[in-house]
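Batch 3, record 17
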Amino acid sequence: MSSSERADLGRALCVITGASRGFGRTTAIEMSRLVKPGSVLVLVARSADDLRSLQAELAESEAGKAGLLVKCVVADLAQMEGPESVVSASKEVFSEDLDHIILVNNAASLGDVSRFAKSFTNMAEVDSYLSFNVSSSLCLTASILQAFPQRPGLRRTVINVTSLCALKPFCSWVLYCTGKAAREMMFRVLAEEEPDLRVLNYSPGPLDTDMQLVARSRTGDPSLRKTFSDMFAEGRLLTCEASCVKLMKLLLEDTYTSGAHVDVFDL
Amino acid sequence: MSDIHSKNPRTLGRGICIITGASKGFGHALAHEVSHLLKAGSILLLVARSQSLLQELKQELQSFTEEQQLVVRCIAVDLSTREGAHETVMVAKQEAVNEMDHVLLINNAGSLGDISQFASFTDLDKVNSYLSLNVSSALVLTAGMLQAFPCRPDLRWSIVNVSSVFALQALPSWVLYCTAKAARKMMFNVLAEEEPNVKVLSYSPGPMDTEMQKDIQRLTGTKNNLFPCQESAAKLMKLLLDNEFPSGTHVDFFTV
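Prediction for the assembled complex:
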């Protein structure tokens, strides 16, 4: 460990969206190990059951026993009340002795990857997709930044879970690529605007999750579908844990350029 | 820029050309430029919210378009509604009775949005409304047109995405505009990958003397060195006439 790498993420308020499964769930677990006692995790997802089971698991963990508070917020982020409920829950659990605010914008959906761009003639479908994958992360981030403004002694870190799809177009993935490209630019603007804020566009790599299952079974473009299913069949998918460990390392070292796109394979 | 009065003028063929946001600014200039380059029997569809401004534009084009046997139709719709895009596609289908050899769709309609600190964007409805006009409507309209005029060997298909340097460059306080332009750029890149028989061009028109620029000046105090819309529109026409650009490319006014 280099001398400049911290041992922990401080006494933190950590908000994680899409925390019920996949990468979000793993992030919650990894974060819980790196925040100091007295920290709070705010876990956001639509599934109350999945959140409660994660909350129970964390309560039983070492961190839980040492005093980690875990709050569940069951919310649909694509509705106005979604981001609002996350912010009010966060304000409820905030205390003045917390020294780090961490927001992990992880919640996302693939959209219908079985279809091609010219089939998207339904405005409601496209609007709904952008509402969840783009607008909600802007509104949630803006609300959290407003609720917890910059002050001495408080670090603020915003993470956007991004993808290679933010940078490269993929056939039959128009919604996902568009949403990821939009988010990446959004967080780059944030980084430019707020030099005191730490903004990380983290691309976790091809993960072994429910999302990858959909990708490898439903992708409309045959060669892309084969690429995904080969990855799975050949054991080339990453576990969420392996990718998350790299994310944690980035956060502890804290040397990334704010706004930069960092890929798991860069490390 | 090719001389339109030369002996063998280059043209954009006998086509159906759809221009959104045609009532003002760049769209308005494009209508003028395109009308000189479409052959007899072509159709020009002008789309915007203001029927009166569209009719004024049609009048401006009148003497020339009559001479050229160009049909000009005005469609007053709000593209951020689901009906907007669908109505536009329906009118296009109705008008295109003759054999066309070119479909040219220019996705120009766009708005600046609030120029404001990132932390101010807490209203989900406002952000959704912005993305609906600036991102969703372009996809839905393009998809509708592609379905209405399916690719065939003797049909040239061109799609223009009116883009911006801010599709590539992040600018403080401009989160809505940058986000939407970056989204559109990717969206049209995916389309270019999927549709080898369609030529897709993202064109960044440069800073022009439009109402949008007036708003920018008023809201930010920035006074840019502005170019006439006509000059940028003419450059886009050259790109389309030359037709050498690789599909999916992003071209800036300053490099043409």
